[in-house]
């Protein structure tokens, strides 16, 4: 690892990204593609079916920049709401 990569690795924190999907049938594939492109920071993904929407909990280990990039892409998907927290 380069010095810059080591510094970024040290700045990573654990967190959770909550995703609410109102059009689960049409958007699940797009969300899966986005999550797969960020596989380096994702530790676990759990989906909870709800009555009118689906809710996903994504456990991550990321920097604030990595988290912002992921949530920004997810938030642009129609019918998707995203909330996140780093510890």
Describe this structure in words.
By secondary structure, the chain is of the alpha+beta class. The chain has one domain: ACT-like. Chain A, domain 2 (Alpha-Beta Plaits), CATH 3.30.70.1150. The protein contains three helices and four strands. It has helices spanning 3-10, 24-37, 64-75, and strands at residues 13-21, 42-49, 54-62, 80-86. Strands 2-3-1-4 form a four-stranded antiparallel beta sheet, with helices on one face. A hairpin with a 4-residue loop joins strand 2 (42-49) and strand 3.
Distance between the termini: 25 Å
β content, as a range? 35-45%
Helix content: 25-40%
The CATH class name reads Alpha Beta
Radius of gyration: 14 Å
Q: Counting H and I runs of at least 4 residues, what is the number of helices? A: 3
- SSE order, as H and E? HEHEEHE
SS elements, strand count? 4
The shape is elongated
Total tally of structural domains: 1
The name CATH uses for the topology is Alpha-Beta Plaits
Name the CATH superfamily assignment.
Answer: ACT-like. Chain A, domain 2
- Low-pLDDT parts are none
Largest sheet: 4 strands, antiparallel
CATH second-level architecture? 2-Layer Sandwich
Average pLDDT, rounded to a whole number, is 88
Class per helix and strand makeup? alpha+beta
Strand order of the largest sheet: 2-3-1-4
Secondary-structure map with pairings?
Layout: H1 3-10, E1 13-21, H2 24-37, E2 42-49, E3 54-62, H3 64-75, E4 80-86
Antiparallel strand pairs: 1-3, 1-4, 2-3
Short précis:
The protein has 3 helices and 4 strands; from the N terminus they run αβαββαβ. By secondary structure, it is an alpha+beta fold.
